[in-house]
Design a protein that fits this description.
This protein is of the alpha/beta class and 254 residues long. It is built from nine helices and ten strands. Strands 1, 2, 3, 4, 5, 6, 7, 8, 9 and 10 form a ten-stranded mixed beta sheet that branches.
Length: 254
């Protein structure tokens, strides 16, 4: 089973080495690594180029492109369309794998179960000292959880390519919540088979467009309301926001 990992970058020179190294150090030997850069003007491109020979020596299929795009979700879609793997996952350019066996464990779960996707747990770190500040511990999927503001941690979401072909790609008309919309569409509407892998998979630096205060919460809520409507679901604003407040307590603080 080949696993395609997609990283989207733009002026990511300060963090992308950690991302690249965590892919390079994976123990699984059937990896395709695709980087979609949005025409960076820092040293990101030089860093991407410097890893070409290392990945080639290890047998990892490594390819990258740099061109203007219309946002992160269009860039992810480009990566999916370029991918040739059986399973696809997204690793952000400021994130990295929790350990060297993550991709191997992902492949094992897919090989041992009749499933379309898996997801797991996530660690947040302080971007300055890299200390773990909280953990996102997920759970098995049940229908109706999205109405309660539940969602898998998207950086841990790995899905068969055939699901993208059958059920569609990321919506580019969403600013922040296209990842949640896609997982809602796949799991809740189209009912693909999922498996929760109860182990830390990805380490994420705190911050970013989807976790930056009241403005992002407003945009996410507005977009999720549209996602529910467009996919035939029921959206109760008070219920959604109430559970969203409670969800903060679900994170395990360190």
């Amino acid at each position: 089973m080949k696993i395609s990992i997609i990283t989207v970058s733009y002026n990511s020179a300060e963090t992308i080495k950690d991302t690249l190294e965590s892919v390079y150090n994976q123990t699984y030997d059937k990896i395709e690594y695709i980087l979609i850069d949005g025409k960076s003007n820092d040293t990101t491109l030089q860093i991407l180029e410097s890893y070409e020979s290392d990945f080639a020596k290890k047998g990892i299929e490594y390819k990258w492109i740099s061109e203007k795009d219309n946002g992160i979700y269009e860039a992810i879609n480009k990566g999916i369309q370029l991918s040739t793997g059986d399973v696809i996952g997204i690793l952000n350019s400021d994130d990295y794998y929790n350990d060297n066996d993550v991709v191997k464990d992902i492949a094992t779960v897919f090989n041992q179960n009749d499933i379309d996707c898996i997801y797991g747990n996530l660690k947040y770190i302080d971007p300055l000292n890299k200390k773990v500040t909280r953990k996102w511990v997920s759970r098995d999927f049940e229908f109706g959880l999205f109405e309660k503001s539940w969602t898998p941690a998207h950086p841990t979401f790995y899905c068969k390519k055939e699901s993208y072909i059958k059920h569609g790609l990321y919506r580019t008309d969403f600013k922040i919540a296209a990842d949640v919309e896609l997982m809602y569409r796949f799991l809740e509407k189209d009912r693909i088979n999922s498996k929760f892998l109860n182990r830390p998979m990805v380490v994420m630096r705190q911050g970013g467009v989807s976790s930056s205060g009241l403005k992002s919460t407003y945009i996410i809520t507005k977009e999720m309301r549209k996602a529910f409507k467009d996919n035939g679901g029921n959206f109760n604003l008070l219920k959604y926001l109430g559970y969203k407040i409670l969800k903060v307590k679900e994170f395990i603080k360190i």
